[in-house]
Amino acid sequence: xSIDDYRPTFMVEAVYDLKAEDLLKHGIHAVLxxxxxxxxxxxxxxxxxxxxxxxxxMTTADIAIVVVSNNKHxxxxxxxxxxxxxxxxxxxxxxxxGIKIAMERYGFSPDEVIxxxxxxxxxxRASHRAGIRSVLVKPLVTSDAWxxxxxxxxxxxxxxxLEKKYGKLTYQKGI
Length: 175
Known about the structure:
Elements: E1 10-12, H1 20-25, E2 30-33, H2 49-60, E3 64-68, H3 73-81, E4 86-88, H4 97-106, E5 113-117, H5 120-130, E6 133-137, H6 146-166
Parallel strand pairs: 1-6, 2-3, 2-5, 3-4, 5-6
Protein name: HAD superfamily hydrolase
GO molecular function: phosphatidylglycerophosphatase activity
Pfam families: Hydrolase_like
C-alpha cells in the first residue's frame, strides 16, 4: 500500500461545488457519490435544497448520479428516494464492489466516472483501486457515526503523510 493510494485527484469544499460544465470539460459523465456527510449529513436523512439544486443541474447536463454507500439498503433507499437517483448499497468501500456494480450497471468506462466522498480511507481508496478519478469533500457535519470515528483517527495519520510528500492539501471551490 502506497500513500498515493489515498491522494484525491481533486479536493472541493462540498459536492455542490462540482459544476456540470467543469465535469464535462474533464470528460466526466457520471458521478458516483457517497451518501453520509457527502451528499447529506449523516444525521439529516432528508438533505437540503442545495442537494436538490445540484442533482437538478447534473440531470439537466445529462450527467448520471449514482449513490455508492456502505450503508444498508433500507437506509440508502430512504435517503435517495427524495432525490430520484439510483444507488448501490453495502458498497464495501474501500473495496471496489460498489463502484464496479455502478459502472457495470450503466456501462460507464473508468475515464468518464468520478467518485466523490468525504473519507480518504474508504471513498478515495476505493476510487484508486477501481482506477477512477476521485474528489474529496469536507464532511457536511463535524460529528460522525460511531463506525466512521475510527476511520477519521487513521485518516489524520494518512493526511499528515500526504502533506509531508505533496505539501499542504487545500480544498477548492471547483475542479
